[in-house]
Amino acid sequence: MNKHFFDDTAVLTGRSLKHVTRSVDTIITTAITPVAIMLLFVYVLGGAINTGTTQSYVSYQLPGVLLITIASGISYTAFRLFTDMQAGIFERFQSMPIARSGVLWAHVLTSLVANLISLVIVVGVALIMGLRTPANVGAWLAVAGILLLFTLALTWVAVIPGLTAKTVAGASAFSYPLIFLPFISSAFVPTASMPGPVRWFAENQPVTPIVDAIRHLFTGQPVGTDIWTALAWCVGILVVGFAFSMVIYRRKIS
Hints:
Elements: H1 3-21, H2 25-45, H3 57-87, H4 89-94, H5 101-128, H6 137-164, H7 168-173, H8 175-180, H9 196-203, H10 207-219, H11 226-253
Domain ABC transmembrane type-2: 25-252
Family: Belongs to the ABC-2 integral membrane protein family.
Main location: membrane
């Protein structure tokens, strides 16, 4: 990477961000579903759920809702990539003296910015609903770091269908399983309350350690090995997603 790459990526990111600012409803839509889930679980189902902790249920389920927000938001990354592919934008950029990988990185950085805004909206609503946390600045920064790393990892996964999908629906449909995954984790109920096979899956999939690490940071408790497991999952997904995306992208533009 050189200055040419960074300059090109900055310009292309500015272009992509303009599309987002002209369609603010995408960010709002991304936040609406997680907020609706949060309202449902806190005010309708929360009273019947025993979390085994003294913390409020809005605090308990917030980490899972934040991950749902990210999973919902990255579908727009795949959509925007698919749209550019269909419009011939990539072919047009190939004829220009710009860093080719900068096109993908522009979409990825745009995803980080858009998802960050959605996450702030969701946390704001949670605070209005009664979220109280003893977390210090360091803990909040750690939470932000985990969420940004998770967003980056899933965004590179989103690049794959964005480049390979045949239809608009196919480009964004991949996010549905990711949105559903937190429901089979420790996000909304303790895994101990689940039947054997479901509990095993919940405790050994990536969402649970990420949720637990964020929850412990919010409550000021020791995170133990959860944070390292969470980071390992995020980095692993990021590496695999990035590698496959670059291979597919090179084949597309060759």
